[in-house]
Amino acid sequence: MSELHQLTLQDASAALAAGELTSFALTEALLERIQRLEPMVRAFLTVSGEQALEAARAADASRSSSSGPLHGIPIGIKDVICTRGVTTTCGSAILEGFVPPYNATVVERLNAAGAISVGKLNCDEFAMGSSTENSAYQVTRNPWDYERVPGGSSGGSAAAVAAGMVPASLGTDTGGSIRQPAALCGVSGLKPTYGRVSRYGLIAYGSSLDQIGPLAWSVADLALMLEAIAGHDPRDGTSANLPVPNYRAALTGELRGLRVGVPREYFVAGIDPAVEAVTRTALEVLREQGAELVEVSLPHTKYALPTYYIIAPAEASANLARYDGVRYGPREPGAGMWESIETTRGRRFGAEVRRRIMLGTYALSAGYYDAYYRRAQQVRTLIKADFSQAFAHVDLLATPTSPTVAFKIGQKLDDPLAMYLSDICTLPINLAGVPGLVVPCGFSAGLPVGLQLIGPAFAEEHLLRVGDAYQRVTDWHKQRPVVA
């Protein structure tokens, strides 16, 4: 058997089911690896070691022939997802020490499937960022190169998988926050359709954009995770009341007759030529497997970035108004209530969060609402229509995920626009509400590159089928960074 930290979720599940491995041994080995690597990678904000080992013992004792594939598997959870009795900070000082009294629906479902949480993963504050440098607590480092970012905002979730700390994790994606770090860390990641996975218990950033999804080494692992967390939830008013397909059964490896659209707007000036070359090579692999590549146009793509940075900050402005030091987290002193609230928010929100709150408040203010927020929502409708029209002619779309490979820590911190441009290939998918899958597809200068596959709403099984077929004939998802 491979070293335990190199096991995919699927491999670990098979070994547990066959009695070749115990959950306790797997969990103990991964906790030891977390302890050894955490000073370098810094992926975790909270490690729940004792609780995880106790859960592993219970998983071993309760294992039976009817146990599901996640039974006894250790995972990590992004720190914007509520976990009962475990600190949940969103990477923000304003929620320092906050312990939720309930679990998010996705956590309930993973618990019901027998999965074991080993801790909470670092992220950009309130999921606002593309590098995991905006956390109030620490900067997560890319396991492929500790001098580089892991992407964001789910950088901790991607780095923990890439470093072999956990075989799978949960992240969230508001504008690319699962897919971009998956690409930069060389792992697989899925942003489901908006409404496919419950957002109950997710601490909101942009309520019309946020979606929870899995990260893992392989697409087959993502299918296992999605089956566990997807499905209708009456506690989430945006949850789609649709049956959950058997995602594992969709992994047939068959691509003949598939029409893959290649949007010309995603291969433009600004994309690193090496990243484009690796991506186009991946597209040729799909062609060799029987897919037909078709050039398509998404003409409103150029408006996605400004549209997103009006809508998302506006929603953040409303969602973050509740954090005032009165109901959640610590309170800064002041001469009166309003001074205390102002001081708390001023000192405990980071610079990027304050920037987005101000942008959003301005866009929603009297006299500017129609000029900015309403206009942005109108353009969003046009962007969504672009995708609908494209999917009338092709089965899915394929694009680069990030315009560059992982950049140096600190390189873009003083240039917010350059940082925002890191998500130029992922933002439109959130605005349209459709699913996106990223698979590792090669390297540039020794750093991972990811291929992004985009499907129609609620067509995750088709994306997973294509991603799995690609991984059956390539080994990029099997490459592991050398960490010490």
TrEMBL record:
<comment type="similarity">
    <text>Belongs to the amidase family. GatA subfamily.</text>
</comment>
<dbReference type="GO" id="GO:0005524">
    <property type="term" value="F:ATP binding"/>
</dbReference>
<dbReference type="GO" id="GO:0050567">
    <property type="term" value="F:glutaminyl-tRNA synthase (glutamine-hydrolyzing) activity"/>
</dbReference>
<dbReference type="Pfam" id="PF01425">
    <property type="entry name" value="Amidase"/>
</dbReference>
<dbReference type="InterPro" id="IPR020556">
    <property type="entry name" value="Amidase_CS"/>
</dbReference>
<dbReference type="GO" id="GO:0006412">
    <property type="term" value="P:translation"/>
</dbReference>
<keyword id="KW-0436">Ligase</keyword>
<dbReference type="InterPro" id="IPR004412">
    <property type="entry name" value="GatA"/>
</dbReference>
<comment type="subunit">
    <text>Heterotrimer of A, B and C subunits.</text>
</comment>
<feature type="active site" description="Acyl-ester intermediate">
    <location>
        <position position="177"/>
    </location>
</feature>
<keyword id="KW-0547">Nucleotide-binding</keyword>
<feature type="domain" description="Amidase">
    <location>
        <begin position="26"/>
        <end position="464"/>
    </location>
</feature>
<keyword id="KW-0648">Protein biosynthesis</keyword>
<protein>
    <recommendedName>
        <fullName>Glutamyl-tRNA(Gln) amidotransferase subunit A</fullName>
        <ecNumber>6.3.5.7</ecNumber>
    </recommendedName>
</protein>
<keyword id="KW-0808">Transferase</keyword>
<dbReference type="GO" id="GO:0016740">
    <property type="term" value="F:transferase activity"/>
</dbReference>
<dbReference type="InterPro" id="IPR000120">
    <property type="entry name" value="Amidase"/>
</dbReference>
<feature type="active site" description="Charge relay system">
    <location>
        <position position="78"/>
    </location>
</feature>
<keyword id="KW-0067">ATP-binding</keyword>
<dbReference type="InterPro" id="IPR023631">
    <property type="entry name" value="Amidase_dom"/>
</dbReference>
<feature type="active site" description="Charge relay system">
    <location>
        <position position="153"/>
    </location>
</feature>
<comment type="function">
    <text>Allows the formation of correctly charged Gln-tRNA(Gln) through the transamidation of misacylated Glu-tRNA(Gln) in organisms which lack glutaminyl-tRNA synthetase. The reaction takes place in the presence of glutamine and ATP through an activated gamma-phospho-Glu-tRNA(Gln).</text>
</comment>
<dbReference type="GO" id="GO:0030956">
    <property type="term" value="C:glutamyl-tRNA(Gln) amidotransferase complex"/>
</dbReference>
<dbReference type="InterPro" id="IPR036928">
    <property type="entry name" value="AS_sf"/>
</dbReference>
